[in-house]
UniProtKB/TrEMBL annotation:
Membrane topology: Multi-pass membrane protein
Keyword Nucleotide-binding included in the entry's annotation: no
Protein family per UniProt: Belongs to the SURF1 family.
Transmembrane segments: 229-249
Source superkingdom: Bacteria
Source organism: Bordetella genomosp. 10
Annotated compartments: Cell membrane; Membrane
Coiled-coil residue spans: none
Protein name as it appears in the record: SURF1-like protein
High-level lineage: Bacteria, Pseudomonadati, Pseudomonadota, Betaproteobacteria, Burkholderiales
Length: 268
């Protein structure tokens, strides 16, 4: 006896299994692409850190300003142009990054590099608000690593599509208090401060300031983890593919034996 509902169930199962194979293979390929991206980031970090330290000047070519490259600069801080970056966590503790431009020594035209001076913790509830420590006076020798830009965080928006925290149109800010923002764009900062900036950021690695910490977050480069995930997804895809073949083989046997309902033809 032919059972149409049995055929429908079989076709539905085959369709779902085929879709599962496609989706699982796609997830595996996506993990392989993520592994390639992380491998490329690791190669860029290793290449940058293998370069000799770069002395930053107003004439430093942009092609030399590679991320992760060790760099150093001589100059004086413009503490009046300091900006505080909010929501920067360290070891699970909320805090701030302090960014101050360093006016490069003997630069002509006057040129600065934005220095991420370090991390400071947010004040505990009930305690006075944290205050960014003033930048050291006089001429400074600053060492660190280059970054392409200030690392960004997810930014909240108002319903009117205006940023929750924005840089003042002109710096220094009124009242002398450093503005607090979540993200800092170099072009916007150069316009607000009136400074000519190098197209890079210097993440300071050592300083005499005990208040600020200098262990900067690093991107995840564990590509082996993504390869492991890809292997899992491909394994699941193989299981779904085998199940597809088993269901298809059993259905074919039933159909060739006399009907999709599972009972063969009987003699008269």
């Amino acid at each position: 006896m032919v059972r149409p509902h049995g055929t429908a169930r079989t076709l539905a199962a085959l369709l779902l299994l085929a879709m599962a194979v496609v989706v699982l293979v796609s997830l595996g390929r996506w993990q392989l692409r993520r592994a390639d991206e992380r491998r490329a980031i690791l190669a860029a970090i290793e290449h940058g850190r293998s370069q000799p330290p770069l002395m930053l000047t107003a004439a430093t070519p942009a092609a030399e300003l590679k991320p992760w490259r060790p760099a150093q600069a001589n100059g004086s801080y413009r503490d009046d142009l300091t900006v505080v970056l909010d929501n920067r966590n360290r070891d699970g503790r909320p805090g701030y990054w302090v960014a101050t431009p360093l006016l490069l020594k003997n630069s002509n035209p006057p040129t600065a590099v934005l220095v991420l001076r370090g991390w400071m913790p947010r004040a505990e509830p009930g305690q006075p608000a944290a205050v960014a420590p003033p930048a050291p006076p006089d001429m400074q020798h600053v060492t660190g690593e280059l970054a392409e830009r200030v690392p960004r965080l997810f930014e909240l928006w108002h319903f009117g599509n205006d940023a929750v925290d924005t840089l003042p149109p002109r710096l220094p800010a009124a009242g002398g208090k450093p503005p607090t923002v979540q993200n800092l764009d170099l072009a916007a900062y150069a316009e607000a401060s009136g400074l000519r900036l190098l197209p890079t950021v210097l993440e300071q690695s050592d300083a005499d300031e005990d208040v600020l910490k200098h262990d900067w977050p690093q991107p995840s480069v564990d590509f082996n983890q993504n390869q492991g995930y890809a292997l899992q997804w491909f394994g699941f895809a193989s299981i779904a593919g085998i199940a597809f073949l088993v269901v298809a083989w059993r259905a074919l046997r039933r159909w060739t034996a006399g009907g999709p309902g599972g009972k063969g033809r009987t003699g008269s």
